[in-house]
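User: Can you predict the 3D structure for this chain?
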Amino acid sequence: MVARHVKGRLRSSWRKTRRFLFHTVLHADDPPGRLALGAAIGVFFAFTPTFGIQMLLVVFAAWLLRANKAVGLPVVWISNPATMMIIYYPCYIVGCTILGRESIDRRWWSELRKPPAGWWQAVEFYWSHLLEIAMPLWLGCLLVATCLAVPTYYLVYYVIRGYRLKRWGQLTPPA
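Assistant: Here is the predicted structure, written as C-alpha cells:
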C-alpha cells in the first residue's frame, strides 16, 4: 500500500518536472542563451552557502545578467534542508583540501554540545566555531559551484538549441 502511494507520488512529480521542462523551458520566448544562463545561475547559487537568500540572489543575478529568472529559481531549489549536508559537506572537504587543513572531527562536534555558561561567551564560542569552517566551506562551494555552473550553461544551451532547431527549424518559438 505504501509502496504504491510512493510510486504514485514519484510518477506525479516526474510528470510535473517533465511538463515544466517542456513547456516552461523549451517553449519560453527567451533565446537559448538567456535560458541556459538562468539555469547556470540557479546551479551556481544552489551550491553556495547562502541558504535562505538563494532565491533572492538568483533573481538579482538573473536580472543583472539579463538571464531567465523562471528557469533559475526552480534549479536553486536543489539545495533544501534535505540536501544541505549532501551538498555542503563535500564542498567543505574540497575547501579543506585546497587550503591544506584538516576537516572537522567528532571532537569539534562534541565541543558544540558544551557551550560556556554566559550568554555572550556562548555567542563568542559559537562564532569562533563557525569561523573555523567558514573559509573552507566558502572556497569549496565557490569552486564546486563554478565547476557545475559552466557545464550546465553549455548543456542547457545545446539541448534547447537542438530541440528548437529540430522541432521548429528555428531558435525562436513560432508566432
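The mean pLDDT is 86. Residues 119-168 form the longest helix (50 residues).
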